[in-house]
């Protein structure tokens, strides 16, 4: 009998899954192919083999596009375009062929060599986005490899309902199949939390672990028992009776909790002493509207629009942007939808072929968000036009990211007015009273929020960036993750300042960073005077439960207690005690 073994990876989508292994592929690394010399006469044959495999791979990818389009929508189907464009890159065409010709080596060796080089380059990058893209190269490379050596991968279609997939890698469309087959989760060797496969698993709610190197080389076979603890990023192979009991119990509790939370759907999000706290959602794609409606949230507080610009080789048209915004606005009506204009850095725009995009050393502090928008004014104006047009179809607000000075806020207002005049001239309808807001996510904006809030209709605190900039802690760097402290006194003071400054101008304050989704912080945020909390749909009911069990007066006392305790240890104690009560 096999012994229990615990392995650790990265949790991609939270949850617990208990099931039997479906091992998609045994540990074998197609990317480490020993050098094989070929004769001069074989070069042509080798290159033909390669070209045929390239074409076949492209055809297979395009064939899956329809399926993705149906299951996940256009933005995910566009990923396939990105995969195809990887295959069309000169690395896969000219360079590999040149190596075969010049060094007289097999195509397998030339390709593995090139793939390893580029994957290593991406993985060594400090930028999470590029790290995530190495998985795409992996996926495409493996497909191509299999077509060259004619090796079939075991088919996911054969996976039984209830199984847990273990593989070297999965493509986003594999995850759809897995969901259709009622598989319970998956574990793969590659990937980070921001890889496409992780994003898709979060969208579909499939517990999953990524980046678990060597999992397919473990002593595992089909039908072995396995547990995924995707809260902790843990995989337990051959769990003991005791472990199984523990996780069955945990799973049962999670289901019960889910049922209990569902009963809160019809209740309003107000405190015991009847202070209404707005409770809305963050979404990253239009598909997620259904999850927002499922938890009966009262609107969308942050609709990130980056998905419309990344992983593609041409800019979206104004109509393409408009159609998505219109869909979300109409589906959510009469509830408000706050559309945030794109917050991307030049790193993510590189494929779009915009002129003057150059790599930067610190993209987080570089030409991103509103700064990039000002530089590419036409691209920015097209997005504002699309948002304004959609505002006629629902209850739309517009929000701008990463402002750091008054001049930027004035420029935003000027551009919005310009677009409004253009639309009026063209007889195009829009909501003339559309509310305009900015995100407060730089310390400079937080400190001058008294002036900024005079010039806009609302503000929303983006704590993800505000914390990283205030504490000088890169939000993506695991080496300093323990210093990323949302309850740092400086952050609490900043939130207090933002709320007081905005309220003095009678402007509401929302909070939409990840911090807002932590139930341990809800009472403090209420006590600080936040008007609206915006979180992923999966967190809405958990937060509502805390709001409904808190009184405003209690929350205010808690905040006073924290501010008057001058010692961080004491603050930690107070917070720990509060967390215990949840
Ligand atoms: C934030 O910075 O808190 C935020 C919500 O924006 P993003 O995570 O998209 O940078
Ligand atoms: Mg931000």
Outline the fold blueprint.
Elements: E1 5-8, E2 10-13, E3 16-23, H1 42-72, H2 74-88, H3 91-103, H4 107-123, H5 128-149, E4 163-167, H6 172-180, E5 185-188, H7 196-204, E6 208-210, E7 225-229, E8 234-237, H8 241-262, E9 278-283, H9 289-294, E10 300-303, H10 318-332, E11 336-340, H11 346-349, H12 369-375, H13 377-391, E12 395-400, H14 406-425, E13 435-440, H15 443-447, H16 449-455, E14 458-461, H17 463-471, H18 489-504, E15 509-511, H19 522-527, E16 532-535, H20 540-548, H21 552-564, H22 568-581
Helix pairs in contact: 1-2, 1-3, 1-5, 3-4, 4-5, 6-7, 10-13, 13-14, 16-18, 21-22
Residues 343, 401, 441, 462, 464-465 line the site of magnesium ion (MG).
Q: Could you provide a short overview of the structure?
A:
By secondary structure, this protein is an alpha/beta fold. It is 49% helix and 13% strand.
| Relative helix content | 40-55%
Using the alpha-carbon principal axes, give the shape: globular
- Amino- and carboxy-terminal Cα gap: 41 Å
User: What small molecules accompany the polymer chains?
Assistant: phosphoenolpyruvate, magnesium ion
**Which stretches of 5+ consecutive residues score pLDDT under 50?**
none
How large is the radius of gyration?
Answer: 26 Å
Q: What is the annotated CATH architecture of the largest domain?
A: Alpha-Beta Barrel
- Give a quick account of the main beta sheet: strands, pairing sense, barrel closure: 8 strands, mixed
Structural classification: alpha/beta
Relative strand content: 5-15%
Write down the CATH topology of the largest domain: TIM Barrel
Let me know the CATH homologous superfamily of the largest domain.
Answer: Phosphoenolpyruvate-binding domains
Instruction: Write down the CATH class of the largest domain.
Output: Alpha Beta
């Amino acid at each position: 009998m096999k012994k229990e073994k615990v392995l650790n990876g990265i949790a991609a989508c939270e949850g617990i899954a208990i099931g039997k292994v479906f091992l998609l592929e045994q540990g074998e690394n197609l990317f480490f192919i020993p050098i094989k010399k070929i004769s001069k006469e074989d070069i042509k044959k080798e290159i033909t083999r390669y070209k045929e495999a390239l074409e076949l791979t492209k055809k297979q990818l395009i064939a899956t596009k329809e399926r993705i389009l149906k299951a996940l929508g256009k933005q995910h189907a566009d990923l396939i375009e990105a995969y195809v464009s990887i295959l069309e890159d000169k690395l896969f065409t000219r360079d590999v062929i040149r190596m075969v010709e010049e060094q007289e080596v097999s195509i397998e060796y030339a390709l593995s060599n090139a793939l390893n080089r580029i994957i290593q380059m991406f993985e060594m990058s400090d930028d999470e986005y590029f790290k995530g893209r190495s998985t795409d190269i992996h996926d495409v490379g493996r497909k191509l490899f299999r077509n060259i050596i004619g090796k079939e991968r075991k088919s996911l279609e054969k996976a039984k309902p209830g199984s847990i997939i273990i593989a070297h890698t999965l493509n986003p469309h594999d995850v759809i199949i897995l969901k259709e087959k009622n598989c319970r989760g998956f574990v793969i060797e590659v990937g980070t939390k921001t890889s496409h496969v992780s994003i898709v698993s979060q969208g579909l709610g499939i517990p999953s672990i990524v980046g678990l190197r060597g999992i397919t080389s473990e002593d595992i076979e089909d039908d072995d028992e396995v547990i995924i603890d995707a809260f902790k990023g843990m995989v337990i192979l051959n769990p003991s009776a005791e472990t199984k009991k523990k996780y069955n119990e945990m799973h049962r509790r999670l289901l019960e909790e889910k049922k209990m939370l569902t009963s809160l759907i019809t209740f309003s999000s107000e405190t015991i002493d009847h202070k209404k706290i707005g409770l809305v959602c963050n979404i990253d794609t239009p598909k997620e509207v259904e999850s927002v409606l499922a938890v009966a949230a009262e609107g969308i507080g942050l609709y990130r629009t980056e998905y419309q610009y990344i992983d593609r080789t041409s800019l979206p048209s104004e109509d393409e942007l408009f159609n998505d915004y219109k869909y979300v606005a109409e589906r959510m009506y009469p509830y408000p939808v706050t559309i945030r204009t794109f917050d991307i850095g030049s790193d993510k725009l590189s494929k779009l072929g915009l002129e003057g995009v150059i790599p930067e050393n610190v993209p987080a502090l570089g030409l991103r968000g509103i700064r990039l928008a000002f530089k590419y004014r036409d691209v920015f104006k097209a997005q504002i036009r699309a948002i304004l047009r959609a505002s006629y179809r629902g209850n739309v607000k517009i929000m701008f990211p990463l402002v750091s000075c008054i001049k930027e806020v004035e420029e935003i207002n000027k551009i919005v007015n310009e677009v409004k005049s253009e639309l009026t001239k063209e007889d195009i309808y829009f909501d003339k009273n559309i509310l305009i807001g900015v995100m407060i996510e730089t310390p400079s904006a937080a400190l001058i929020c008294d002036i900024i809030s005079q010039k806009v209709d609302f503000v929303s605190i983006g704590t993800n960036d505000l914390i990283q900039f205030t504490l000088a802690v890169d939000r993506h760097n695991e080496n300093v993750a323990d210093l990323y402290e949302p309850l740092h006194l400086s952050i609490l003071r900043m939130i207090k300042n933002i709320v007081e400054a905005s309220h003095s101008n009678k402007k509401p304050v929302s909070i939409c960073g990840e911090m807002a989704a932590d139930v341990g912080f809800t009472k403090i945020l209420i006590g600080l005077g936040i008007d609206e909390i915006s979180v992923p749909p999966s967190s809405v009911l958990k937060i509502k439960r805390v709001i409904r069990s808190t009184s405003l007066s209690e929350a205010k006392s808690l905040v006073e207690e924290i501010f008057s305790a001058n010692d961080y240890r004491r603050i930690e104690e107070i917070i720990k005690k509060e967390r215990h009560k949840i």
